[in-house]
Amino acid sequence: MTVRSSPGSASPATLRRSLAAFAALAATLLCGAGETSSHDVVVYGGTSGGVTAAVAAARMGQSVVLIEPGRHLGGLTSGGLGATDIGKKESIGGLSREFYQRVKRHYANPAAWKYGRPDEFRSNQHDPKEDVMFYFEPHVAEKIYVDLLREARVEVVRGERLDLKSGVAKHGTQVDAITMESGRRFRGRVFIDASYEGDLMAKAGVRYLVGRESNATFGETHNGNQPYLLRRQKVASAHDFRRAVDPYVRPGDPTSGLIFGVQPGGPGPEGEGDHRVQAYCFRLCLTNVPENRVPFTRPADYDPAKYELVARYLNSAQMLPEFPTAGDIEHPVLGNNLTRPEPVVIMPNRKSDSNNKDPVGFNLIAGNYDYPDADHATRERIVREHVSWQQGLIWFFVSDPRVPEKYRAPMKDWGYPKDEFTDTGHWPHQLYVREARRLHGALVMTQRHCDGTLPVTDSIGMGGYAMDSHNVRRYVDENGHVRTEGTIGLGVRQAYRIGYDAITPRREQCTNLLVPVCLSATHVAYGSIRMEPVFMILGHSAGVAAAQAIAQRAAVQAIDRAQLRAALLQQGQVLERPAR
Prior knowledge:
There is one protein chain. The chain is of the alpha+beta class. The protein has a domain at 2-79 and 136-212 and 437-458 and 498-570: FAD/NAD(P)-binding domain, CATH 3.50.50. It is 26% helix and 15% strand. The strands form eight sheets. Strands 2, 3, 4, 5, 6, 7 and 22 form a seven-stranded mixed β-sheet that branches. Strands 1-8-15 form a three-stranded antiparallel β-sheet, with no helix packed on it. Residues 7-32 have low confidence and may be disordered.
C-alpha cells in the first residue's frame, strides 16, 4: 500500500499556500486563458456514479455541469459491462434502481428485440416478474443515461480532461475552480469527483491510497500478498493455474528468462502490503448473429510470441497436486466450458458480456501498476497495451495452430456487433479500471465493515457483492511452475451499510469535495463496493449531499446527517437491510 498526497496540496494551517493558490487563480482569470463558467455543483467523470450524482443534485434544484473526459457517458455500464454484478438485489434503490427499471421498460417493447425474442433470453439474474432488468446492451445503457441527464437539465461537457499540472485552484480548504487541458475553467460551490481514477481528488491535495494494505494495517485477513490463499483452501478458482506450466523461454532453463506475462520474484511474505493493483481488461460485447457480426481480424501489432504462456497452459496435461479434479479449461475468450454452444453470459439480442476467464485470459496482469498516478499520456499508452493484448489474444485463438481445435473452432461463429461502439471500431470505449486511487478519509471501509463485524453509522447506501479482486501478478513457485496471486472471492453474509464519511475527505484537507467512486476503503473492501450499481447509489447520495451542503452553507463534512438520511429515504435509497 502507498499513502499519497498531492505535492501542492493546500491546507487551512498554511496561509502561504492558500494565498498562492488564490493568486494563481486570479492571475489565470486576468490572462483570459479560456472560458469560465460557474455552477452550484461540478461533477468530474461521466461514469455511472457521475451521472447519478449530477441528476440527483439537479433534481434538488442545483445548477449542475457534468464533465466527461471522453466522448461517452456511463463508464463501464455503457462500456460493455451489461451483465450487472448485483450482489444483494434488495439493497439497490434510488437512482440506481430507477436505471434498471428503465432498462426493463426498454425491453418490454417488442421493437427492442431486433435479433432475438424475449423468451429466448435466459439468465439466473433475470426474473421477468421483477420491476428491474440487470442485463442489457451497451448502447441501451448510454441512451438511458443521456435521457436522465437531459430530463434533469444537466449541462454535459464531453472531451475535456483535467489539467493534471495546475488544474485545481484552492483557497484554504475549498476548491474554487478546476481547469481543463484546453484552458476551459469551471467554478463551483461543491465538486464531485466521480472518475475511476480520482484525479480531481488527488490534485486537490486530498490524501489517498494506492495498492494493497498489509493485513495488520486495518486488522484484515485477505489483504496484501496472498500467494497461498487458494492453494491452502484447495479452491479450483477460475483465475488460478490448475495445470503445471513452465515459465522459462527454454523450458527448464531459468537462465533463458521468463516468457511474456510472468513477473520475476517468488511467492513473497504472506499478508504484506505492496503497490500492486488488481488487473484490468475490457468487457467485450460479442455476437453470433451473422447479419450483425463484424469478423475478428489480425491486429497490426500482433505478436504470437506474447501468447506462449496461453499455449503452454492449454496444452499442459499435468495437473497441479491441489487441483487433481479441476476439469476442463474454460474458453478464455468465449468464457464457456465447451459443453455449451455459446458464452456463459448471453445478453439481449444474442450478444455477450465477455469478462476475463482463467489465469491467462483478457486481464493484462501487472500491466496497470503505473496507471493510478499516471499522466494522461501514460494512461493512453497503458490503454493501448491492454487493447493490443486482448485483440491479440482473440486472434491467437482464431488462428494459431498451438490452440487445440476444440478452442479454435467456436471462434468462427463470433465477432463484434455492428450496432455497438460504432465510433470506436466496435471496441468498448472504457477500460475496466477495477481499482485505482482510493480516498483515505475519516472512515475507511474495511473487510470487517463488509462482513458485519464493525458497525457503520450514517448510511448512504448498501453494498452486497462479495469482496472480489482479480489477480495482481504471476510468479514462479518453489517447483518451477507459474502461479497467479491476488484473486479474492470472499463472500458477504448480508448487505452492509456504507457510511457517509467514506465519500468525504478529512475536513482539514478539503471541505467542498465528495468522492463517491474512488471512495475511502481498503483494497479488500473496495473489491466489494466497486460494483456499478453501488457507484450509482453512492453517486446519488453524493449529489443530494452536495445540494444540502449548499443549502446549509456548510462544509460537506458538517451537513445535517438526519436531513441527509430523510432526503435519501424519501428518494428511495435503501439505507438498511430490509426487515425480515
